[in-house]
């Protein structure tokens, strides 16, 4: 039991808990960040924008193919630029910002948990987030959302502190909250402010519309948010006019109203993603998510419930449904799971039967998938006759080297899961839950270490390796028939040519001045008929590689021009 008359013991407890969380985060999040190629689209998209900032020396404007790219603000890209300038342009530097924020997130959860409940609760919360599949995985990725979610969550928590009766300086807390939501705005856009406003409005309504902040507090938040957002949005308008910001806002509306890039999913999509992807905390959170605590709901638990439902309902309504859009819900969900775990540990309650059964059923199902998926890919000759997607079939026919230990992740996790369930059955709650959470974190790390290179090798490595082989050569490289950012990043494409939006047409039919190479997917059967001037170089995996050479007259003219410029 923590008591105020044991300062030395409490300090030692802090050091112990923080050391375990810090070492765990560093061991799980940092290693092997650069082991696998960045994945199309999002990871390569953001990394390429950061690379182009470095190439151009212009860190104020976001670009793709050296043209304005209005889909995302620049804050996360600035973090990637910082890492790339230190560690070099590559996968490790592109993913390092999220790994660092993974460490910060676990330490922040400990700090908030310690302040709201106690040190043990803060530690449970950190381990709970570490030991769930999708929250763990995103900290080893190069997507924007972990940084974006961190700022939103912390901004909402600080605002919550500002409106409490014991808040000593609500205006200062409001300034901090506004700055954090402003940073979220600079990271991914106004959806951060939307989530904040919806959550705090719902919280106000839950308090029966009582006045919870003063006018000065609201003005402090608005001022801070505006000033931080102005660091980029305002400067962009002042320097280049409103066009870029207008296009950015139009794109955000388009994401909400229509399924962009074919990302149309059923209405229950995000609920399935969160329930399965956030195992085991998604199941451990159910008692606090669906039922009121027997001890009564404290204010923070009510806020966490509201934040969870605001995110889930909002992104259920949004037409474009992508896996990580609902990732903001993971943080409040982890709080609710930690409340239940803490209650089990401190009050020595028995684990609810339905929770135990769901843990067992879902966990075993995940183990079956972890065993069956590698076997199905390894013996793809048995699977291919049932597939109708030509590109997928061609990918599975790739010659990929297996190490032989990829199949062990599933059985090892099953063994750990059974051990954890036995401990829980025998009411060793602390040992059982720690075994479950840490084995899940280990399973995720092993899966990323063993199976992600295999997935990469089948799905995109042939194309990426080709782009890398062309890097530094005076040639054109272009994918045809499918959208990709990989050729920009891995070919290290120089500044955009004068052909602009007509680049594909020029390279396929124009009088090109240097060799052009094209990558298309195996199911693009019309390419050779539509482009008879292109010669097939090779077929590898799911991709076909073509070349088109310039005419001799243009080559000779280019050589003479080069010799003239060189001089004697």
Explain what this protein looks like in three dimensions.
It is globular and about 80 Å long. The strands form two sheets. The protein has a four-stranded mixed beta sheet, with helices on both faces. It has 568 residues and is mainly α. The chain has three domains: 7-349, no CATH class; 360-459, no CATH class; 465-566, no CATH class. It has 26 helices and six strands. It has helices at 7-29, 42-56, 75-87, 91-116, 119-130, 133-138, 145-162, 170-188, 191-206, 215-240, 243-257, 269-277, 281-284, 286-290, 299-317, 330-347, 353-378, 380-383, 390-396, 409-425, 429-459, 461-470, 486-490, 503-509, 527-530, 552-566; strands spanning 63-64, 67-68, 476-479, 516-521, 535-540, 543-548. The model is unreliable at 1-9 and 553-568 (pLDDT under 50). α5 (119-130) packs across α16 (330-347) and α7 packs parallel to α9. It starts with 6 loop residues before the first helix and ends with a helix.
């Amino acid at each position: 039991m923590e008591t105020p008359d044991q300062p030395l013991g409490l300090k030692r407890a802090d050091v112990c808990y923080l050391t375990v969380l810090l070492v765990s985060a560093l061991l799980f999040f940092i290693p092997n960040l650069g082991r696998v190629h960045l994945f199309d689209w999002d990871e390569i998209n953001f990394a390429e924008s950061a690379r182009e900032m470095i190439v151009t020396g212009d860190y104020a404007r976001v670009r793709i193919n050296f043209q304005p790219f209005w889909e995302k603000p620049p804050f996360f890209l600035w973090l990637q630029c910082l890492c790339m300038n230190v560690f070099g342009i590559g996968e490790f530097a592109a993913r390092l910002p999220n790994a660092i924020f993974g460490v910060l997130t676990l330490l922040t959860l400990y700090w908030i948990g310690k302040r709201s409940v106690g040190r043990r609760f803060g530690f449970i919360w950190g381990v709970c987030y570490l030991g769930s599949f999708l929250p763990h995985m995103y900290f080893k990725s190069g997507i924007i959302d972990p940084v974006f979610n961190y700022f939103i969550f912390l901004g909402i928590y600080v605002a919550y502190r500002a409106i409490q009766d014991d808040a000593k300086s609500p205006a200062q807390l409001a300034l901090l909250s506004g700055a954090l939501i402003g940073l979220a705005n600079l990271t991914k856009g106004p959806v951060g402010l939307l989530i904040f406003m919806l959550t705090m409005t719902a919280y106000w309504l839950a308090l029966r519309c009582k006045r919870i902040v003063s006018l000065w507090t609201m003005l402090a938040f608005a001022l801070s948010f505006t000033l931080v957002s102005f660091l980029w949005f305002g400067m962009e308008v002042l320097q280049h006019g409103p066009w870029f910001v207008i296009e950015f806002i139009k794109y955000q509306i388009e994401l909400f109203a229509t399924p962009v890039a074919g990302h149309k999913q059923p209405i229950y999509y995000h609920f399935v993603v969160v329930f399965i992807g956030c195992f085991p905390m998604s199941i451990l959170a159910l008692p606090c998510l669906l039922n009121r605590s027997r001890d009564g709901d404290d204010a923070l638990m009510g806020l966490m419930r509201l934040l969870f439902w605001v995110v889930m309902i909002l992104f259920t309504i949004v037409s474009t449904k992508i896996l990580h859009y609902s990732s903001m819900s993971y943080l409040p969900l982890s709080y609710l799971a930690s409340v239940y775990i803490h209650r089990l540990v401190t009050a020595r309650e028995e684990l609810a039967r339905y929770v135990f059964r769901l843990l067992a059923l879902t966990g075993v199902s995940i183990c079956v998938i972890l065993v069956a998926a590698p076997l199905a890919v390894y013996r793809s000759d048995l699977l291919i006759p049932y597939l109708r997607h030509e590109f997928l079939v061609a990918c599975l026919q790739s010659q990929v080297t297996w190490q032989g230990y990829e199949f062990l992740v599933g059985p090892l996790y099953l063994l750990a899961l059974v051990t954890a369930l036995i401990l829980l059955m025998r009411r060793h709650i602390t040992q059982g839950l720690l075994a479950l959470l840490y084995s899940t974190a280990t399973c995720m790390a092993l899966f990323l270490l063993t199976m992600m290179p295999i997935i990469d090798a089948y799905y995109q490595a042939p194309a990426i390796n080709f782009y890398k082989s062309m890097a530094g050569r005076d040639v054109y490289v272009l994918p045809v028939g499918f959208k990709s950012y990989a050729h920009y990043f891995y070919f290290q494409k120089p500044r955009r040519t004068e052909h602009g939006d007509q680049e594909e047409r020029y390279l396929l039919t124009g009088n090109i001045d240097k060799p052009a190479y094209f990558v298309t997917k195996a199911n693009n059967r019309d390419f050779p008929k539509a482009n008879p001037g292109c010669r097939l170089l090779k077929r590898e995996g799911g991709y076909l590689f073509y070349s088109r050479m310039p005419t001799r007259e243009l080559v000779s003219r280019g050589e003479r021009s080069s010799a003239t410029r060189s001089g004697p």
